[in-house]
Amino acid sequence: MPAANLKVVTAAQMTALEQESERQGTSTDTLMETAGLAVAEYARQRLGGAAGARVVILVGPGNNGADGLVAVRHLRRWGAEVTACLLTRRPQADPKLDLARDCGVDVLDLASGEGMAAYERLLARSHLVIDAVLGTGRSRALQGVVRDALLRVAEMREGGSRPLLLALDLPTGLDADTGAVDEATPAMDATLALGFPKAGLLAFPGAARAGEPVTLGIGLPGGVGQDNVALELLTPQWVASRLPPRPLDSHKGTYGHLLVVAGSRNYVGAACLVARAAHRAGAGLVTLATPESVYPSVAAQLTETIHLPLPEDKEGRVHPDGADVVRETLTRYDAMAVGSGMGQSNGVAEFMESLLLTGQAANLPVLVDADGLNSLARRGDWWQRRSGPLVLTPHPGEMATLTGLSTAEVQGDRVGAAREWAARWQAVVVLKGAFTAIAEPELPSTSGPQRDGLARLSPFVNPGLASGGTGDVLTGVIGSLLAQGMEPFDAASCGVYLHGLAAESVTGGRGYTGLLASEVADAVPGAIGSLAD
Predict the structure, then answer these.
(1) Three-class DSSP category at 351
(2) What is the DSSP letter of 284?
(3) CATH 3.40.1190.20-classified regions of the chain
(4) CA nearest 194: which of 4, 38, 69?
(5) Topology of domain 236-527, per CATH?
(6) What DSSP state is assigned to residue 484?
(7) Rounded to 5 degrees, what angle do the CA atoms 326, 374, 393 make?
(8) 510/526 Cα distance (integer angstroms)
(9) What is the pLDDT of residue 448?
(10) Sheet holding 455-457: strands in order across?
(11) Whole-angstrom Cα distance, residue 349 to residue 179?
(12) Is the peptide bond before 163 cis (omega within 30 degrees of 0)?
């Protein structure tokens, strides 16, 4: 079976998948039993064994609570000491609770007013606390016993008691679709997403409370209903399957020629980082077009790079006439990356308009980043004048400039913003940040109803990347993959993943502080190599 990314679902989509599973002959009860066993096995592994472990499970009213009761039934059979704390009323006919009791699980019914003091004593001596209260069922602010019980967990953690804290499917109080989170929701060590991760786990602020996201299979029939899910989490297997091969009889022409247009007198480093990353990501040839006064500096640092000096203005930024110089060479290249470190001025905006919006570069895949994006934003109708493959890589502030939204609005629905504007601009949009979102242009449907354009999310959240130049490295990696012949959406997706993986390889052994963009660029070959292992 071809490698695939992991689908990311909303609460409604997960319900639809379970209903379709039922229609195909796999009952909800079967899914529940499979999910509960998977949770128990994960918990046993994290505990280093179940025998003698003291486990507290917080149980809610619906299927999330039932999944948890299946899990602790297994943990009890494996020798754990288990107490199920009922925070809400359970159904009168409750076979999962009955089976748990039959296996020796103790029950503390906080919903009936049993002592909170007894509950606090249980928490204080526990090795594992499982949150199986609401899952995707949360629709309003947490109140009453549920809120009080969760606040006790948070207080326990703040007080220094550190039992393992796991959430089933979602931490209680975290919105499955948006990532909004209740103030009473404690921070988990891990959230065990059942079947598929929910979109809210991959969005802030909720992601900060979810801990490590872990996806557990629950026995859904293969492929059931997934064609209607248009959001994916990038996986290493999928990325490895898409990267260009490196045949033994290849040569530099096999891997494409990337033109990088970047830099200015004040931002020499940006041009160097893009070109360096492009080389590291495997481009056969890289030409760097920079203002004339910048050329000597970058040429001294980049011995493998071909150089194309451009006319400049008195501040050391590219002059509009430079577009003519670049256009004369366009037939040599397989892709172009433009914008990093170019600075902002009327002249730079004129250069961008002449180079990208007049038709000469129509068939060349182009990536636009940084100052190039801000220059495009000055031309309100730019997307109506641009044809050909296009990748845009804005951070949230640049996305706000391009769209007229506020940065907060962009961040409030990152996937939605990337999708909407990718469709409007007919471009691949890479919205950078934690869980970088990559959206394809929405193509007209030839049969059936129009669907959302596909979007993909990076699994990486790395504060070390919050430093100057790391975005330039991403530009070079994606540009390199474009030059190697990858389709724009796949090139952007694989580039984002490799960039994140390279950063993780650097920060993993030393922490997030002090990461240099050049270190990320130099770690890209190792990241690519690790996917082939």
Answers:
(1) helix
(2) S
(3) 236-527
(4) 38
(5) UDP-N-acetylmuramoyl-L-alanine:D-glutamate ligase (3.40.1190)
(6) T
(7) 80
(8) 17
(9) 52
(10) 6-7, 231-233, 455-457, 437-439, 428-431, 390-392, 366-368, 335-338, 257-261, 285-291, 306-310
(11) 37
(12) no
At the fourth CATH level, the homologous superfamily of domain 6-229 is YjeF N-terminal domain (3.40.50.10260)
Q: How is residue 245 written in tokens?
A: 């091969």
What does the mean pLDDT of the chain come to? 93
Asked which of 473-477, 492-496, 510-514 is least confident by mean pLDDT, the reply is 510-514
Task: Tell the residue number behind the tokens 């082939």, with chain if given.
Answer: 532
For the record, the structure tokens of 332 come out as: 């040599």
Sign of CA dihedral 199, 66, 137, 219: positive
Fill in the amino acid letter for 448: G
Under 8 Å between Cβ of 203 and 177: no
Count CB-CB contacts under 10 A for residue 320.
19
In 3D space, the residue among 160, 175, 159 whose CA is nearest the CA of residue 209 turns out to be 175
Quick: pLDDT tens for 114-163.
778 899 999 999 999 999 998 776 667 899 999 999 999 988 877 776 89
Which are the contacts of 83, defined by CB distance < 8 A and separation ≥ 6?
55, 56, 57, 105, 106, 107, 108, 122
Angle at the Cα of 153 (from 148 to 154), degrees rounded to 5? 95
- Write down how long the chain is: 533
- In the block, residue with structure tokens 């499982």: 130
Q: How far apart, in whole angstroms, are the C-alpha atoms of residue 21 and residue 26?
A: 5
What number of other Cβ atoms are within 10 A of residue 232's Cβ? 19
Phi/psi for 266 (5° steps) reads -85, -15
As a whole number of angstroms, the distance between CA 299 and CA 481 comes to: 23
Residue 236 tokens read as: 């290493």
